[in-house]
Design a protein that fits this description.
- This protein is of the alpha/beta class and about 250 residues long.
- It has eight helices and eleven strands.
- Helix 4 packs across helix 5.
- The protein is globular.
- The C terminus is likely disordered.
- Bound molecules: zinc ion (ZN) (2 copies).
- The site of one zinc ion has 4 residues, from loops.
Length: about 250
Amino acid sequence: MIADLHEKFNVLLQNEGDHECEGIGKDKVCVRVVAMAEMPTRFGEFHIIAFENNRDGKEHVAIIKGDVIGAKDVPVRLHSECLTGDALGSLRCDCRDQLEASLRMIAGMERGMVLYLRQEGRGIGLTNKIRAYSLQDQGLDTVEANHALGFRDDERDYAVAAHMLMSLKIESVRLITNNPKKIQQLIDYGIDVSDRVPHIMEPNEYNRFYLETKAAKSGHMIDFHGKEHLPEQSDRPFIKGMSVAPVGMWDD
Ligand SMILES: [Zn+2]
Ligand SMILES: [Zn+2]
């Protein structure tokens, strides 16, 4: 089984290694598969596949459970990189909780994957995200801070994700999300989204209060200055055991 999977990956790597196409989205982004390996994690056994793109040299990864190549109805989670949250445990956002919840969920499935997208800080990059945090420390809200730096509220784009799914020959996806707009973007880029799987987070004793507070406030955090912070991931949290507003009532 694992040997079959490796063979499939090797064929993909050979066929896709010098891939080029006209690109997807307004930036005509094209990605290619460049490396893959086994990746055991604290959440379960995965494979990791690296992609590079033709625009900005950013490397994206797919963290894969089971045999997804050419499969239908593959559960997929799109996660936008957040160094401060994912790696450093920052509490300015809940990115790490969302990432861990999705890896744990997919580890328990027959197949599925997380696409880890290098669009830090709602797409404005790490340094600018920290600049925006600094402006928020001075009393601006997230939107005002982004505008002060010359960015839109949200610069995220899922063209790279759509191309990664095509590179992996995924026939259709069950998108793990609470955000209908994310589904629409993928469909607009030509992906067959056969279903939506709600992203329900299981709180632990350390983050329960934080997550429940965030969910109760429809995903917006209020900072020390009484200003709103918008979530860095495009999904509002659903917390297990908690009743929350139905999908569609949210504005991002
Ligand atoms: Zn391409
Ligand atoms: Zn974050």
